[in-house]
Amino acid sequence: MSHRIGVSIADHFGVSEEWFDKEGIFNANLDIDAPLFIDPFLLPESKHAEFSGCGFETYEEHFGKIHGLLRLSENVGDKAWKGALKQFQFSEAKGLSGTCLGYSKNSTKGNGFGKKLSARALVWAKQVVDLGVKDPEMFSSMSLFEDGIGPDRISDMVANITLPCIIQFNNRIYSEIEEEFGKKIPRQSFNLKSLVAELASNPYSNIPAPIILLPRDILKHLPIVDDALKLSDVALHNEQLRDRVNQHISEIFKIRTKKEKDFIRNRAMESSAAFQTLLDLLKIIEKEPYDTLKDPQGLLQWRSLAEKFSGVYKLEIKPDATKSRIAQIDEVCLQIIEQFRHLVENCRLSQSFYVDGAPRHERFAQLLFYAIAFSYCAANDLDISPEADAGAGPVDFKFSRGSDRVVVEIKLSTNGKVVEGYEKQLKAYMAAEKATIGHYVVINVGRMGTKWDRLRGIARKSKNFQRDRGLHLIDGTPRASASKL
Asked: Under DSSP, is residue 462 helix (H, G, I), strand (E, B) or coil?
């Protein structure tokens, strides 16, 4: 059993994380994908020539060809249309899971453009071309206009198109690492589409996959269209675009919720000027990559925090060998939950739940608990394995030995479905894992209201809940440092 999870590329190569930070290289986890995606709007802004030069030019050239064919096409299915459709089909490229990016729990599957999705997107693109829009970057805005084209597909599309440039980047960075640290990184040949690349192998992947390096400055957490409120805010404060927005697509200023995309996408499709105004606005907004160093969403920092706290605050676990196997697993689980409570409430781990005073995403707390649990089980040489289904959504845990399992759900008090999760989600997860015992851990980071009282009320009403579904509250609210008390 490995002694921890969240093994970074720098860890695996045996080089310093500071060098990765200095050079602007994304230091990905090799065993858990990060919910980030390659944003085509960021390509021209990269400090790395393989992306700002080669990548952006290759991307523009590819969609320039499609744009030209669509201008020539007079009917769906004619020669020019078929040529454009052929260029528009981005199949899943084997090996590109080596970027360690992904949003879905099966993040290496199903992110290509199938025939139906490609054809539907091409119909939209033809409408935009017929409006008179000449900017090939129009294709970067597809996720706003076409349902089913999310960040995974956009990222996969960009990687497919710019693959030769990605390989150039990796050749350079691999060589620089070897020169800087005086060590040879074992590499092997990987077939990536029609190209062959010499890359290190990812030993933590379930399928043969290379380790593909990417720069930090082309990665985003969510596309801007998932937060339409930002469109309104930027349009209001940008003098160059404000008048154009008012004239051509003033619906942007009517947006009041993040999901009100229809206001803008319907209006943008009415004229070339309206569409180009929206596209220029997106280009401005999308210039900021995800800050992997500050890590406001907690996508990466759980790794180092788990290592630090489990290393400093040791935990000796000795399950009672006279108990049944399931009772021993539950005993280990309870000891780790209590130790996690101690770290949060008494050792200032609670500070990590916040960035700029606002709670991080629930996923951060889930991965942090998982990594700490994993470290303690490994340090005590237990043959009880904590496992997680760690896709981009909620992280589900189970502690198991053989066929016996205990499951754990971690929720933040800010989750609007925290009560429903205890009643329904935990039950469903226990059934799916064939577990007889489950634990529901709620971390209070604010906005608790009556949720805890309602949860306790549910537990009191049912003997099954009291016996099989443990309920735990951890106080994760900010605390003043000792010097301020």
From this structure: coil
Assign 3-class secondary structure to 114-181: CHHHHHHHHHHHHHHHHHCCCCHHHHHHHHHHCCCCCHHHHHHHHHHHCHHHHHHHHHHHHHHHHHHH
* Sheet strands (E) in 358-453: 358-359, 385-389, 396-401, 404-412, 437-444
Mean pLDDT over residues 306-326, rounded?
A: 95
Q: Copy the structure tokens of residue 157.
A: 């599309």
Q: Which amino acid is at 419?
A: V
* pLDDT score at 94: 67
* Amino acid code (one letter) for 261: K
Mean pLDDT of the residues in the chain: 89
Distance set, CA 386 to CA 104, 271, 408, 424 (Å): 21, 55, 10, 22
**How far, in Å, CA of 434 to CA of 432, rounded?**
6
Task: Summarize the confidence of residues 159-188 as an average pLDDT.
Answer: 97
What order do you get walking across the sheet with 396-401 strand by strand? 385-389, 396-401, 404-412, 437-444, 469-475
- Domain segments of the chain as ranges: 9-221, 222-291, 302-484
Q: Which two tokens stand for residue 459?
A: 């537990």
